[in-house]
Amino acid sequence: MTRFLFTSFLATAVSQAADKVTFDDHVLPIFEQACLNCHNPDKTKGGLDLSNYAGALKGSSGGKVVESGNTASTLIAVVRQTAEPKMPPEGDPISGEAIKVLENWIAGGLLQNSSSKAKKPEKPKFDTALQADPTARPDGPPPMPKDVILEPAVVASRSSAVHAMVASPWAPLLAITGQKQILLYDTDALELAGVLPFPEGDPVSLAFTPNGRYLIAGGGIPGKSGVTVSFDVITGERALTAAKEFDTVLCTDLRPDLGSVATGSPSKLIKLWKTEDGSRTASIKKHTDWVTSLDFSPDGILLATGDRNGGVWVWEAETGNEFHTLRAHQAGISAARFRSDSNVLATASADGTVRFWEMNNGNEVRKLDAHPGGVLDFAWAPDGSFVTAGRDRTAKVWKPDFGQKKVIDKLPDIPTSVAINQDGKRIFVADYTGRIHVYDIESGNRVGELDHNPPTIAARLQQLSEAEKAQPAAIAEAEKNRAAAAEALNQAKQKVAAKEAAIREARKTIETSKRDEQEAANKQKQTAQQLEQQRSKLADQEKALAGLREQIQGRRKRCAELDPKIASADGERKAAENRLTEAKNAPEGPEKAAAVTAAETASRQKTETLNQLKQQRQSEAQPIAGLEKQIQDKSTVIAGIRQEIEKLNASQKSHQTAQEQARQRHQSAAQQLPQLEKQLPEVKKALEAPTKSLQEADQRVTEARQHAEWVQRKKHHWQRAALNAESIAVGKEAARLHAESETLSAEFAETTRSVEELRAEFATKRGELEALRKDAESPGDSETAAERASVVTTLQATVEALKETLANTAAQMNEQRSKLDALLPQIDALRRKSEELKRQYVAAAPKAP
Q1: Which of 2, 243, 529, 791 has the smallest number of CB atoms closer than 10 Å to its CB?
Q2: Where is the composition biased (Basic and acidic residues) (predicted)?
Q3: pTM score, whole prediction
């Protein structure tokens, strides 16, 4: 019941996040539920009393646990259990809803009750939002290695710990320190993209310039020598060598304007070196222990440095003058890194924290208790998100607002370095065993591993050749297994198809027989209706035929009755016409006109009467022929109707038979269908095994073919890499021999000059000797002769010595000429070979899709 009430309280508290969250109403109930067993007035463990508002604000013996506005306060870190001591130490951790209430209380100004005023943040406000646009990349495509050698400078018996690892800010490129080399990897393909030899020793520090074009590496031989080398990422060539030290360079960076290099080492000194001539421009003695990390701000204005004792300083990059002293860390600095906008510096420490400093006043604006036991590395992404790795064997991804996004725990070993790629989708974690693990940030899943000790190209090609030889047999075996699986599945499908066909046939029979039965019944009904219609029609026709006969009989009877009347009217008409003739032929007199008129009227009336009777008889007699024709037609129709009735009777019997047959088919199929449907699932279930086998066989065939294609692509890739490596090696040898020939040519020219001088001196001395000999033959006193003989002897010795020297020098000149004559064809041959290898390398480039 108590837990239910507490959960209900939390739900209410979270819903009021937009309103005031106070200590009395919302925070104290959480403390009572989870904290007051150890942190009360009677038992103030760690000097912390959370039973009242004043005690909560006072904090513990280690300092304040809450700070107004700072949701990364110690209280939040310990209840999230991301820092020691984890709270509560026993039992269930505080729920996410309760932690949200605590964060809202801190963000809202640590209110005691609803009438309190929010406390102002103790630290000055600083806008920690990223100021620079992370999408404002440099012009042109991101710098990626092009034709850089892939032949490892060293292949060790086993991998060693990775000292440093850094991702390009714009390109999918990761640089990793190796043994006397730096490895460049494509972070999308997870393939080796280049090898940068570092023969001066082991590189231990790496940094890209903000535009991603140059990579500086620092390292050397511990206790003996140190140096930095800057590489052009695109060509892999050494662009600059600077900072000659007497111990290994632990950290280094190249100023974005390429004007200077900064180094830190066990000497505790920060040194600035001028890239133009390699001269040292500053040596800063401020750190009290080894300088372990340094970083130029991306705008090139500041330089941040950290040491093994936890000291952090910020310097003016141009002059080396002190800019900020940042005091807070209690243990060594593992990383000091500027954000891409140069406004915020992050410092990670073995004390387990990462602190963030704004550069206007050097104030700390955020503190994260990131990893109990110590933060071992830190890396920014261009968008302001970042990643940390710690001694607790976890890597954490953080959002630009400093909120935690993803935790990747249970790393295989303690991490030594961490990096996040340019698009913020992958992180790379290196450990003490030399393994480099790749994780997808969104899912937290491990997606690959990079080889820290890659084999030689020849070893790769040998492995690929052996794999290539095995491919045809593997593909053939996979296809054979697929064919067998397909045949087994086909047979099982045929059984299913046969059963389904039988079911379809049974259902079809049921459907068609039912339809045929209904159709036959409908036809019977229709035929019965048609019979009834035909019979009714026959009756109507016969009735109509009788009516026609009655009409003819009546008309003939009426015609017979009219014939006497017509004869009588015709006689009366003729009598009237006679009387008219008589009236017209009577003598003229007063009564004649009246008599003629009366006779004419009588004649006309009789004629009209006769005509009427004739017309009446004609109207009666005229239809008789038509009626007789109708009777004939009607008789024909009646005969047809009787024939149709006979046919319908026959159809009726046929439909009855069809209906019975359809009924029998329906019953038979209806009895068979349930059995077939019951058998079908069993037959279908038998498909599962061969279907799965075929899918697996298909997958194996696809994998075998894809692997064969992959082997071919890789073999071509590494054959091309071998061409490039040989071309570069031959070119270097040609350059070396050319330099040797230049030296030899200079020596030959000097020897030739010496021979000429010796010849001239020899001729002079020999002339002098001949002159002395002639003088010695001339008469003179004995003392002069003795002196002359002594001079001749001395000069003779000088001439002989010159002759021998001339002979030796001439022999040396001839030897040099012979060497030079032999060397020049070698150089020419090597150059031609290098050009041919380059041509083959270019010709072997993959065709654009």
Answers
A1: 2
A2: 509-522, 563-582
A3: 0.68
